[in-house]
Design goal:
With about 375 residues, the chain is an alpha/beta fold. The protein has 15 helices and 6 strands.
Amino acid sequence: MLTRMGRGPGVFAAVVVSAYLLAQPLLAGAPQKVKGLPARLSDHDFWRLSSDLSEPDGTFRSDNLVSNEAWLQYVIPDLLKNARPAGVYLGVGPEQNFTYIAAMRPAMAFIIDVRRGNLDVQLMYKVLFETSGHRAEFVSRLFSRPQPDGLDDQSTAAEIFEALSHVERSQSLYNDTLRIVKQNLVEKHQFPLSSGDWSAINETLDVFSTFGPNVHYLSTGTDTYGGGLLPTYAELMTATDENGVPHSYLNTEESFRLVKDLETRNLIVPVVGDFAGPKAIRAIASYLREKGTTVSTFYLSNVEMYLDREMTWGSFCRNVAALPLDAKSLFIRSAFDGQYGKGSGLNSDLGPLLPHIDQCLPSQQ
C-alpha cells in the first residue's frame, strides 16, 4: 500500500531538520536567479509553455475564486526556516499562491488546477499586477472601489482594507478595469483566448466587484461547504501566523512588487491539469529536468483528500515522483487534522517530499 505524505511534526523534523537547513537564513530580497531557468519568458513562450503543459479542461464542485484556508500563514515561519532559498514553486488554486510565493521568493512558479477557469483567474490577476503601480491601485482595480485617501507605501494590509471598507463600488471603474484586462491580454500579450476564457474572466471580475473585499469561498454559491471558518478576502490578506506576524502578499509593497515582478517577466505560469492526470505534472517535470533545476515547494491544498476519494492518489504520487526533487523539496498540505492552525477548518502541514514517494513504483512512471 502506498504511504501517504507524512502528517505531523515528527516526520518533518526527523527528515528535514539538519545542520545545513538550520543554518539557512530567512529568505529576503528579490527572487534569486537560478541557472538554467529563464530570467524572462516572452509572451509567445509563456503562452506556448502554458498550453504545452496543460491537459483538457476538467471539473470541480466549486469555482474556488477565494481560498477557504483561514490559517494558511501558520506554516510560513517553519517554511522559511527549512526551505531552499531559491528554486521552483508549484501550487494550486487562486490567491493563496501569491502569499506563499511572496514568502518563498522562487525563481519561477507554476500554478496547476484541474479547471481552466483557474487559469483565467490567474490571467486576470496577471494583468492587475502588471498594470498596478502599488497595492492601493491593485485592490482598487480588483474590487472596483476607488482608491481611498491617506494610503501610502508604508500602509499595512489591515489599513488598506479598513480604508477600502468605507468605499462604494464604482461601475465606471469596473468597466475601465475590464477594458484594461482585455486590452492587455489581447493587444499587449496577444494571447489567443477563447470565448469561454472571456466569459470566465468577466464573471470573475464581476464577482469581485459585486462582493468587494468581503468576497469569500461561498460567494458564488457553487458549493456547499461542510463547516469550518470561511474567511473573507480582507481577512485572508490581514491574517497573520501564530505569532501575529503578517505575511500576505498585500501586507507590504515589497511583497506585492515581488509577485508583480514575476508576473511582469511571465514567470508565474498557469497550467490546466489534474494532479492524478497523465500529463501536466509530468510535463512540468520534464521541463524542469531539461532546465537542470528542482522543485523547492509544492503547495497541495487539500487536493489529496479528493484524490483519495477517487482512488487516484497512487497516480498522483507517481506524478510527483517524476518531478526533480531533493532532500530540501517541501510540500505544504491543507487538512482538517493539519498541525499548523487553530484546529478549525483547514489547517496546514509541512514536510519533505522525497521520503513519501519511495513506494511509487519507478516502473510505472
